[in-house]
Design a protein that fits this description.
The complex is a heterotetramer, with one copy of chain A, two copies of chain B and one copy of chain C.
Chain A (H helix, E strand, L loop, with lengths): L1 E6 L6 H11 L3 E6 L10 E4 L19 H11 L3 E5 L1 H9 L5 E3 L7 E9 L15 E8 L3 E3 L2 H9 L3 E6 L18 E5 L5 E4 L17 H11 L1
Chain B lengths: L1 E8 L6 H12 L5 E14 L4 H16 L5 E7 L2
Antiparallel strand pairs in B: 1-2, 1-3
Chain C lengths: L3 H6 L4 H11 L5 H10 L2 H4 L4 H4 L9 E3 L6 E4 L4 E9 L1 H6 L1 H17 L4 E11 L5 H21 L3 E8 L8 E11 L14 E6 L9 H4 L8 H4 L8 H16 L5 E4 L4 H13 L2 E5 L12 H6 L5 E5 L5 H10 L4 E8 L3 E6 L2 E7 H6 L29 H10 L7 H4 L10 E3 L6 E4 L6 E7 L2 H6 L1 H19 L2 E10 L6 H20 L4 E7 L3 E2 L2 E2 L3 E10 L16 E5 L10 H7 L11 H16 L5 E4 L4 H11 L7 E5 L5 H6 L6 E5 L4 H10 L4 E7 L3 E6 L2 E7 H16 L4
Parallel strand pairs in C: 4-5, 9-12, 17-18, 24-27
Antiparallel strand pairs in C: 1-2, 2-3, 3-6, 4-6, 7-10, 7-11, 8-10, 9-11, 12-13, 14-15, 15-16, 16-21, 17-21, 19-20, 22-25, 22-26, 23-25, 24-26, 27-28
The chains are: A alpha/beta, B alpha+beta, C alpha+beta.
Bound molecules: adenosine-5'-diphosphate and magnesium ion.
The site of adenosine-5'-diphosphate has 16 residues of chain C, from strand 17 and strand 18.
Chain lengths: 229, 80, 736, 80
């Protein structure tokens, strides 16, 4: 099984994601350059965190025009697995592979901290190693993670059980207080209707080694690996 | 020629930045300000184009690049 | 043609001008004058500080590069080197807090990756005036978001630092940023031009009229003419810098670069002349080839521009194409703008005319060096606490007040805005005594800290200088790291005033003594003078950054208590004076000395003992006693425990409880250990002759302090935590 | 009434955002765009005030809150 981590200009979690896939999970992993046109036979694309193009216009807005994103679009349409983490999630929204948009965090500040996440849907390629209601502790680090979608879209999202991860308390309550950035429905992770494209604001690659204080992020990668094998 | 494109949140979308500016103004005693909405402005210096072409091209780049139609709306004008 | 007014505008004295004329054998033109004024400014030439900086020890077996390059380099064993440096961006941050702080981050990052190192951590030392004044809050918000905006975007974690508040920083905020990078030991790059004929390439952002005279501005006080001195403020572009970082490291990894120098303060002028001077060659550039952002720029403006995110590099003729290909991959231009030439002059061409022709040596190395007069100020001797303040009647109240003091209160409001985890090396998040970063693929870790207490330096600059070094090393000892190298940023007032010069000299001599005591080299740093507004200088503020190594990351220690029933010990003396303490200043309301003193011999013994005890795995926690004294240190040990563990300790009959609890005497830590290890611990302490006291134990959910059976402080950890945690955010609450 | 305040970087100040947008437009083939400057727009809903008062108050709040006079300039107009 083969993973590809996309590098956009301004990506900065590309090496972290690569390190975890390659050195922690011992998977074959490639870097994919945004200007290329070829996904090189990978089974799962990861769009990593960072500030593609500085996020100067809107987070993820310019990266979506990269040549490689055309390939990613087709790959996703064929059912290939796509994981967008943080800025990668923002790119997926701008690409239209996921519904909705990101607004600035409700306190208008960048937020870097551990948060608790409740698994709302454990039947996805990205969460199948978890239980519904299970709580994970994984860090976030973003400025624009306040998820928004118009009411009709929210209806759809809920109807299709697309909410995968929600900001919660340590015991799994999705309270207002636990909703650090102000997202609708405490959304931290969202999947597309077909169930093969996941965007999540928290960084599982920052919580995959004991030395970093949490290994809860492993669940995401393990789920993908077991799904693919 | 010069084009100005204004991008702002749709009415239905909450604008926390605008709210914060409003609060800041109130705390300084500028109570005559009732509401604030914050948006972006782009000033484009472009090759001279006939009006009909502008009518196509400018909305195109506004829609595709400058604004995110899910949350934002835009308007544009010719400056000079 | 060069009149008195022009000289004044360039901050050059008539004597300095005379010297320029002699050195170049004629009157300089305006561009040449600009070049000299920049490079001979205090900021670039260190003309007032040089003779004192020479006193600092700079050598040691681990030193690969000491002062004199963009950053210091220390051998980490195996094939890795640590590259680090600290820089100030005080003046720009006062003028425009967001951009000033942001470009400060950009500048120090360039210093590190110019050397061939990938930056892996940032730390920031910040000083502001009291937060009850709106202006100070505005500056602090701007500075913190500027650091966050730049560091987060470029993907270098800001893993630690310090924030102090004192009225002396109200109109003189300090923003010092430290950066640490890692490089392969055999691939360090220097500012060299190499051989004549080598092409000189300009890479990165276009040149605009940014910050012209920034360096000369950093070499003058602010006064009511501030408005006029406001240069074109530089706006940082972290995205461009990220591209520059990746492209430079890629070109270096492929062996395509001979020499490289960033263009920060003093831009093209500094980079061209320094590279040539270091190689003993000349250099020639054509300004028509320099990428420009604005129309009609003059040679003067191009040479003096401080536009950010630019680099100058030298390669060989054959490699130009490969270099350009790498930069193109990262959407950056790399333009050949000149060549290394025979001779020893800088030659600058503009529209076919030779507009500058001056010896690089004169520009870079022949600035006059000043032995500025110094004089000990008399009044500080009288600012000594003669009579003990009256004994507080309610220690719980005092304790709460101290925990809420912004200098002591939790800084999460600040570091939550910094991405402190990107690059997934950060093992100890901000809040511990030192930041700890694993070195991937090894059992080792790096520990880094910044320290400096200006109140001590005000009352006794020599002791303050020593303490800055001692305390930074003590912070490392607490986590289990051996210090390897030091960098420092010296923030002072106007060096033309003898009292300021005295402070400077004393601090440097104190630091030198402490470094020699710890056998530690200083590998670089920065001096920021003229931190005065309307004649009011800041307190002397040295900020010391120390980098250390932890051999076995598994043994690294945190400040928080671990287990109920663990024993709590004080290492070091009880202390005896409240002089210069935060308690005396903020609670009693008396700003009085004397400053604490540090016995360097004892300090070293205690640190070595701490390291040995950690190595033998005798301890469960260690935390250094600093601002707020023993009481605050104890509270922090409780706050950093996982479940609000409490502590019960007993004070001895002497000294008085306020002194025992709040004094800031040096060489002291609080450690905790399991009762089974006590015997071994005490034996080790005895063989090493370590003064220590059994304070009490980790127990319950409250901080309880008694003396002679009487309860003096009794506060639940949860309540104390709440006070400590919410103090800073409360200042910044958005009111609606 | 409604006021619009436009805030943008002074000409001489680097505008990384505008530059990035320009590059993006070029890479999408919109070469007729020669330059882009990005700024902010504030739409203020305010109590009706006579023109003379506006002339004082609006520049005042623009200078103090909406713009950073060190690097930014502003202009304003009455919308309705
Ligand atoms: N306080 C200090 N202690 C030790 N070295 C210093 C100090 N201040 C400056 N230096 C060293 O002097 C050298 C000259 O500095 P300079 O070339 O001006 O560096 P910068 O690029 O930081 O302005 C640098 O190597 C710097 O590390
Ligand atoms: Mg430098």
């Amino acid at each position: 099984m083969k993973f590809g981590v996309v590098i956009f200009p301004g990506s900065n979690c590309d090496y972290d994601t690569y390190w975890v896939l390659k050195e922690v999970f011992h998977q074959e992993t490639l870097f994919l350059w945004h200007k290329d046109h070829d996904l090189r036979g990978i089974d799962c694309v990861v769009l990593p965190g960072g500030f593609s193009y500085g996020d100067y216009l809107r987070s993820g807005a310019i990266a979506r025009f990269s040549p490689l994103m055309q390939e990613v679009r087709e790959f996703a349409a064929r059912g290939g697995l796509v994981l967008g983490i943080c800025n990668g999630f923002q790119v997926l929204l701008e690409l239209g592979l996921l519904p909705g948009a990101m607004l600035r965090n409700k306190n208008l500040k960048f937020l870097c901290q551990f948060v608790h996440l409740k698994i709302n849907n454990a039947e996805t390629p990205f969460t199948n190693q978890g239980r519904p209601g299970q709580v994970l502790r994984i860090p976030i680090a973003h400025y624009d993670g306040n998820f928004y979608a118009p009411p009709e879209t929210m209806e759809e999202i809920k109807k299709n059980n697309q909410i995968v991860l929600q900001y919660s308390t340590s015991t799994g309550e999705t309270t207002e207080e636990a909703n650090v950035n102000g997202s609708l429905e405490n959304i931290a992770g969202l999947i597309n209707q077909q169930g093969n494209v996941l965007g999540m604001m928290p960084h599982p690659e920052r919580a995959s080694e004991a030395v970093l204080g949490s290994q809860d992020g492993r669940l995401i990668f393990q789920s993908i690996i077991s799904w693919l094998s | 020629m010069k084009i100005r494109v204004l991008v702002s949140f749709k009415e239905s979308v909450l604008d926390p930045q605008g709210q914060t500016v409003k609060n800041a103004l109130h705390s300084l005693g500028y109570d005559f300000v009732k509401d604030v909405r914050q948006g972006k402005v782009f000033e484009l210096e472009i090759d001279d184009l006939p009006r009909e072409q502008l009518e196509v091209k400018i909305p195109e780049i506004a829609d595709k690049v400058l604004a995110n139609p899910i949350i934002e709306k835009f308007e544009w004008e010719i400056l000079e | 043609m060069i009149d008195k007014k022009t000289l004044e505008e360039h901050n050059l004295t008539p004597e300095e001008y005379q010297r320029i004329v002699e050195l170049i054998g004629r009157e300089p033109n305006l561009t040449e004058l600009g070049i000299f004024s920049l490079m001979w400014s205090e900021h670039c030439s260190y003309k007032s500080s040089k003779i004192h900086l020479k006193k600092l020890p700079t050598t040691g077996p681990q030193v690969i590069q000491g002062p004199g390059e963009n950053a210091g380099v220390i051998d980490l064993g195996e094939d890795l080197a640590a590259v680090f440096k600290i820089e100030s961006h005080n003046h720009p941050s006062f003028i425009e807090p967001y951009q000033g702080a942001a470009t400060g981050v950009g500048g120090i990052l360039r210093d590190i990756f110019t050397m061939g190192a990938r930056p892996i951590a940032l730390l920031d030392s910040l000083r502001f005036g009291p937060l009850d004044q709106t202006a100070n809050r505005v500056i602090m918000e701007g500075v913190v978001s500027g650091i966050s905006g730049y560091g987060n975007s470029i993907g270098v974690p800001t893993v630690g630092g310090e924030v102090y508040f004192h009225p002396c920083y109200s109109l003189n905020p300090l923003v010092n940023v430290f950066c640490l990078g890692l490089a392969p030991k055999d691939k360090i790059f220097y500012a060299r031009a190499g051989r004549p004929g080598n092409p000189v390439l300009y890479v990165g952002a276009k040149t605009g009229r940014d910050g012209i005279h920034g360096a000369t501005m950093a070499s003058a006080e602010f006064d009511e003419n501030l408005e006029k001195k406001r240069p074109n403020v530089q706006v940082g572009d972290p995205f461009k810098e990220k591209l520059l970082l990746e492209a430079c490291l890629e070109a270096m990894a492929q062996g395509l670069i001979i020499g490289i120098q960033d263009m920060g303060a003093a831009g093209l002028t500094c980079s061209t002349t320094e590279m040539a001077a270091k190689s003993g060659t000349g250099i020639e550039i054509n300004l028509d080839l320099v990428p420009q952002r604005e129309e009609g720029m003059t040679p003067y403006e191009i040479m003096l521009s401080e536009s950010q995110e630019r680099m100058l590099l030298v390669t060989t003729e054959e490699k130009v194409g490969q270099v350009q290909a790498i930069f193109a991959k990262w959407d950056l231009d790399a333009v050949v703008i000149g060549r290394v030439i025979e001779g020893k002059n800088l030659k600058v061409w503009f529209k076919g005319e030779l507009v500058v022709d001056v010896p690089v040596e004169a520009v870079v190395n022949l600035c006059p060096v000043y032995h500025r007069p110094w004089k000990e100020p008399t009044e500080r001797g009288q600012q000594i606490l003669k009579e003990l303040p009256s004994h507080p009647s309610d220690f719980n109240r005092v304790f709460r007040q101290l925990l809420a003091s912004p200098t002591i209160a939790d800084k999460e409001w600040v570091f939550r805005q910094y991405d402190h985890m990107v690059q997934i090396n950060t093992v100890f998040l901000p809040g511990a005594d030192a930041a700890v970063l694993r070195i991937k693929g090894t059992p080792q870790a790096l520990a880094v800290t910044l320290d400096g207490n200006s109140a001590y330096c005000y009352f006794n600059p020599r002791e303050g200088g020593k303490i800055a070094v001692a305390e930074a090393c003590r912070n490392l000892a607490c986590v289990g790291a051996r210090p390897l190298g030091v960098t420092n940023c010296l923030n002072f007032g106007n060096p033309e005033k003898p009292e300021i010069m005295w402070e400077f000299k004393e601090v440097v001599e104190g630091m030198a003594e402490a470094c020699r005591n710890f056998n530690l080299p200083i590998t670089g740093g920065n001096v920021s003078f003229y931190n005065e507004t309307e004649g009011n200088p800041i307190y002397p503020t040295p900020v010391v950054g120390v980098v250390g190594l932890i051999d076995d990351l598994k043994k690294a220690l945190r400040p928080g208590f671990q287990n109920q029933g663990d024993l709590i010990y004080l290492l070091g003396p009880w202390g005896e004076s409240l002089g210069a303490s935060l308690y005396l200043r903020e609670i009693v309301g008396q700003e009085k000395g004397p400053a604490p003193r540090v016995d360097l011999h004892l300090e070293k013994k205690i640190q070595e003992f701490c390291l040995e005890a950690i190595h033998q795995e005798l301890l469960h926690s260690a935390h250094d006693i600093s601002e707020g004294g023993l009481a605050v240190c104890l509270a922090e040990c409780c706050f950093h425990s996982e479940s609000f563990l409490g502590a019960r300790i007993a004070l001895p009959p002497e000294p008085r409880p306020d002194i025992a609890l709040f004094n800031e005497d040096q060489s002291r830590l609080i450690v905790s250990l399991s009762p089974e290890k006590e015997k071994t611990f005490l034996q080790l302490a005895e063989t090493k002759e370590i003064p220590l006291t059994h304070l009490g134990e980790v127990t319950g959910q409250a901080i309880t302090i008694t003396q002679a059976g009487q309860i003096i402080i009794d506060l639940s950890v949860a309540e104390a935590y709440q006070i400590w945690k919410t103090s800073l955010p409360n200042f910044f609450k958005i009111k609606s």
